[in-house]
Amino acid sequence: MAAKFEQLGLIGCGLMGGSFALAAKRAGLVKRVVGYSKSPSTTERARQMGIIDVEAPSALLAVSGADLVLLAVPVSATEATFKAIRHLITSNMLIMDVGSTKRDVVDAATRVLGNNLGSFVPAHPIAGKEVSGVEHADPELYVGKQVILTPGPKTQVNHLKRAVELWEGMGCHVQQMAPEAHDAAFAAVSHMPHLLAFALMHAIINQPMGKDFLALAGPGFRDFTRIAASDPKMWRDVLLANKLEVVEQAKMFQRSLLNMLQMVEDSQGEKLEGMIEQASNSRSHWRMGQKGK
Ligand code: NAP
């Protein structure tokens, strides 16, 4: 039986936060939502769309009376948000986030939350869209998706259990791991692909014939660069927050790229085909959310 919450205090009524509120209400997991966003116009829009029931004038007041709090703000705003709400946090309140990086978020919580650190269960839903903003909030966003929780030694067991039940109640598959393991994995399979897509678009549009080349591009280009249309501020934050792991992955990528380029330059067809074959086989057998053998 999934946990039921009386009041969700939602801080950040955008794509991720708005989708969470809609999904949790639809699943009967949350009765009432009090929301706050940086711009009053976003908060008002969230109320008009039925995402939140009450507009709060500050993050602190969004937390007042809540038994569940969700931070769905850019990761760079996490620490300031914890500071803004810490005076109303109680030990029986479950607090979560949805940030794409976890070490920085856990460090911010450790610095700010003090004795209430045990109430915080860090979360990263592996769901999203390349469009952000409250107008794209979608109650289906999390259905069937993975959610990674990165609890620490101080996380209260009952809060962790309620967090797992809550995400599962919205149709998610929950996994737990250490924040460092999370950040290393997502540098490889999320942050690097975004960086590469941004860099490729950048390289094409900044050459004299770039626009003409784009006009000729087909489905391969469309699929490869879909994520290059993602929110610039969010991705600036994610890449900076996870810079060590991103640089590590970039070095590994660089090695593969240079290797393959050398093979092209030297017309080493057999070796080149071998590397492509390895990549092609791995990609053909890859299924989302399935562990490799
Ligand atoms: P979003 O649609 O832009 O929503 C972010 C919301 O936070 C906006 O409503 C914004 O308000 C509000 N906000 C910004 N700074 C704030 C502050 N200091 N105090 C209170 N509210 C603030 O972005 P999103 O895609 O939902 O991303 C939210 C979080 O989810 C990020 O941490 C991101 O890493 C994570 N995430 C995103 C995805 C994805 O695909 N988008 C996937 C997984 C995780 P305004 O409207 O007033 O600017």
Q: In a nutshell, what does this entry contain?
A:
51% of the residues lie in helices and 13% in strands. It has helices at 15-26, 40-48, 59-63, 78-85, 103-113, 157-169, 179-205, 210-216, 219-225, 232-241, 243-265, 269-285; strands at 5-11, 30-36, 54-55, 68-71, 94-97, 120-121, 123-125, 146-149, 173-176. The mean pLDDT is 96.
CATH architecture of the largest domain: 3-Layer(aba) Sandwich
Strand content: 5-15%
* Ligand identities: NADP nicotinamide-adenine-dinucleotide phosphate
What oligomeric assembly is this protein in? Answer: single chain
| C-alpha Rg (nearest Å) | 21 Å
Overview of this structure, please?
This protein is of the alpha/beta class and 293 residues long. The protein folds into 2 domains: 5-177, NAD(P)-binding Rossmann-like Domain (Rossmann fold), CATH 3.40.50.720; 181-285, 6-phosphogluconate dehydrogenase C-terminal fold, CATH 1.10.3660. 51% of the residues lie in helices and 13% in strands. It is built from 12 helices and 9 strands. The protein has helices at residues 15-26, 40-48, 59-63, 78-85, 103-113, 157-169, 179-205, 210-216, 219-225, 232-241, 243-265, 269-285; strands spanning 5-11, 30-36, 54-55, 68-71, 94-97, 120-121, 123-125, 146-149, 173-176. A 6-stranded parallel sheet has the order 3-2-1-4-5-6. A 3-stranded mixed sheet has the order 7-8-9, with helices on one face. It is elongated and about 70 Å long. Bound molecules: NADP nicotinamide-adenine-dinucleotide phosphate. Residues 11-17, 37-39, 42, 59, 72-75, 77, 80-81, 98-100, 125, 128-129, 132-134, 234, 238 line the site of NADP nicotinamide-adenine-dinucleotide phosphate.
